[in-house]
């Protein structure tokens, strides 16, 4: 039995609570009786305190809280009832359960005992099991009380934490019902809006934030406890002045349904900063626009200048060329050898100057977005045109031109003509001692068409790969008939078409020039041409 | 060449005096008998085109204009010529050292130009081609008027 009682005790304490001994007070003037009680209650493993008189008991009650008091009725000086009355009269022990131990079954005694708040009577001789089980009930009761008290303390602590968080928040925090009735507000709310907190309770949050709306709580029958994203709404102070506020609403569930926490932040400085940034940005954009107009104007002026310069250069030099030729025809017989050399140099350099000016003009045509329009261009036809203009070169050099079947693409025909003409004539011009062989092919790449022009000419060292695309850049002496502008024309043309040009080459093993050309569908052409530089 | 002994009147708007000399040389080579009236800028040429047909200003058989002229454009000269009924039967052509822009060429064509003669840089080509093409235009002018 003893072990059973102890086992049930161990099982009964609340989970999460440390099994803590409770205090029990036994009061009897007979020391033997006290020892007997001690022996009986020992298996409960609680903290039993003993008192040999009512006075002792009262003293102990001053310092301790007891789960139960076992009180002998018949004692000298203060008897049990008198002791009980005094125990009950004290606030601390007002509710402490008292069990009277008595040898007499008298109704009068029972009434008096119950009157004094006794919870039970035990009659001597004491049956140990009965005493154990009765005391055990009070031990458990005491434990339950402890649990409740701790929960209450926990609750109070949580409440304090919550209050501290609320008060410590940098934002005004207002807790409302879903319809906006204010139930709680922190002190920042007072300072931000100028209302006293008490005055706010029960009023609607729309007095502060006229456009406040409750965040969506239920979606498809499922409660949504996600906060609404931060929004900026106007807020009104008590004095009627307005300020911009950043609002975040977060609903939370309570027993009665939902409440909403609304965090309000004064965004005045932020808005001012944003406005300043916007102003600065607008100012910047304006300056960029002005600069762009300026640049466009100077670009256009430069373009016109380049055109006029190249054309106007060509005119006088053509005249010099014609007349030096005429002169040499008409006076050759009368000139000595030295004079003939002089005249030949004039002719040679006039001719070269004329070519350069012509190349410059072509370069300008290639790089200037203008009258040429995007159409379907059959590259096979382009190549045919090019080969017929180069037929003299081809014939004189004995060049063999091979050409794969080429695609029809959306492009600017005049630029495609210039590209193939310059690449092929380059291949012929910079030929090695072998018969020039030039192969033209195309393939469909990731970003569009890739065309290649392969020759078996002199080849180019990789360190010159960038250099050769510059205007008037040549790797060979004047006696090679190049003007040094052909590849610059190609580069300008390819870039106008939205592609790029590159090469693979090494001295002695020929060159392959590649250029890619975007494969544009009809609809894309409009937008791509409008993006081209003017 | 049957009518080569007949004197042809040629109106030439050309600012480059050297080219005027070359044109003369080319015409001589092709045995064309000609009377050349050369105008060194657009304004002088326009004024002349407006006066053609009046007393002392006989209408030419051929009007040749350079596109690039001081104080105006070759097409402005063609426009003045197109407005003058006395020049209705005259052949009109461009004589230029560069291929004009498509819009210039189209404008010239609408104003009655039927030829486009390039000035080659090479002397022999100039004398040969320009002379031959002018002679051809004059012949076709005869064919049209007879």
Description:
The complex is a heterodimer of chains A (534) and B (146). Chain A is built from 15 helices and 19 strands. Chain A is α/β, with parallel strands linked by helices and 534 residues long. Chain A folds into four domains: 2-156, 3-Layer(aba) Sandwich (Rossmann fold), CATH 3.40.50; 170-266, PAS domain (Beta-Lactamase, 2-Layer Sandwich), CATH 3.30.450; 271-368; 371-530, Heat Shock Protein 90 (2-Layer Sandwich), CATH 3.30.565.10. By secondary structure, chain B is α/β, with parallel strands linked by helices. Chain B has a single domain (8-145), classed as Rossmann fold (3-Layer(aba) Sandwich), CATH 3.40.50. The model of chain B has no long low-confidence stretch (mean pLDDT 89). Chains A and B meet through helix 9 and helix 10 of A and helix 1 and helix 5 of B.
Write the layout of secondary structure elements.
The complex is a heterodimer of chains A (534) and B (146).
Chain A: H1 2-12, E1 23-27, H2 31-41, E2 47-51, H3 54-63, E3 68-72, H4 80-89, E4 98-102, H5 107-115, E5 118-123, H6 128-168, E6 172-177, E7 182-185, H7 187-193, H8 197-200, E8 218-219, E9 222-223, E10 231-236, E11 242-254, E12 257-266, H9 268-331, H10 337-367, E13 375-378, H11 379-389, H12 391-397, E14 400-403, E15 408-411, H13 413-429, E16 437-444, E17 448-455, H14 486-496, E18 501-505, E19 511-518, H15 522-530
Parallel strand pairs in A: 1-2, 1-3, 3-4, 4-5, 14-16
Antiparallel strand pairs in A: 6-7, 6-12, 8-9, 10-11, 11-12, 13-15, 16-17, 17-19, 18-19
Chain B: E1 8-13, H1 17-29, E2 34-39, H2 42-51, E3 62-65, E4 68-69, E5 72-73, H3 74-83, E6 91-96, H4 102-110, E7 115-118, H5 123-145
Parallel strand pairs in B: 1-2, 1-3, 3-6, 6-7
Antiparallel strand pairs in B: 4-5
Helix pairs in contact in B: 1-5, 2-3
